[in-house]
């Protein structure tokens, strides 16, 4: 490489003696060009994690509130023979509907935003529906795991205690 660079500099000085020989490598230019994208990616990852954590806290609080509101209903269902899994399904069904509705609104917005963002790159990929489905399933799993703590605790509670609850 040093020999090639000396030769290129000699030829440059022979052809164009009035201008200095300046050079850069394409891989370094590409690294510098995408450096801001890598920083933006790290920043988005950090703030996405924080947003998911805050959303899970809110969802946990909402699940706790729902369980407290439905304490007597849960007790009555258990007395009438509902299993733990039946109660968990009943309490989680509402959250599944909300996550599905959120995905219905989020997917088109994300698609159009991502299409515009990807157009700024020389080599870009096409968006695949599997990425959107995977994100929806992941959001549903996170929501159900967050809610399941409270719903499982409520479903395992003694129905006598919940019916005496005032």
Explain the layout of strands and helices.
Blueprint: H1 2-15, H2 26-69, H3 71-79, H4 84-118, H5 129-156, H6 159-164
Helix pairs in contact: 2-5, 4-5
Summarize the structure in words.
This protein has 166 residues and is an all-alpha fold. It has one domain (32-164). It is 82% helix and 0% strand. It has six helices and no strands. The protein has helices spanning 2-15, 26-69, 71-79, 84-118, 129-156, 159-164. The longest helix is centred in the first third of the chain and has 44 residues, at 26-69. It is rod-shaped, with a radius of gyration of 29 Å. The N and C termini lie far apart (83 Å). The model has no long low-confidence stretch (mean pLDDT 86).
Number of helical regions = 6
Give the structural class. mainly alpha
Rounded mean pLDDT is: 86
> What is the terminal separation in angstroms?
83 Å
Shape label: rod-shaped
Strand content: under 5%
Order of helices and strands: HHHHHH
Keyphrases for this structure?
166 residues, mainly alpha, 6 helices
Please outline what is shown here.
Helices cover 82% and strands 0% of the residues. It is mainly alpha-helical and 166 residues long.
């Amino acid at each position: 490489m040093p020999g090639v660079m000396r030769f290129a500099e000699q030829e440059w000085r022979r052809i164009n003696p009035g201008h200095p020989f300046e050079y850069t490598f394409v891989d370094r230019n590409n690294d510098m060009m995408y450096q801001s994208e890598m920083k933006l990616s790290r920043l988005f990852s950090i703030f996405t994690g924080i947003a998911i954590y805050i959303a899970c806290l809110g969802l946990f609080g909402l699940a706790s509130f729902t369980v407290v509101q439905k304490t007597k209903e849960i007790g009555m269902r258990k007395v009438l023979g509902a299993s733990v899994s039946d109660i968990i399904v009943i309490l989680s069904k509402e959250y599944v509907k909300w996550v599905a509705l959120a995905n219905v609104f989020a997917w088109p917005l994300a698609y159009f935003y991502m299409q515009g963002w990807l157009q700024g790159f020389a080599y870009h990929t096409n968006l695949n529906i599997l990425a959107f489905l995977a994100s929806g399933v992941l959001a549903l799993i996170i929501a159900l795991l967050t809610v399941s703590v409270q719903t499982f605790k409520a479903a395992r509670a003694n129905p006598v205690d919940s019916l005496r609850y005032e």
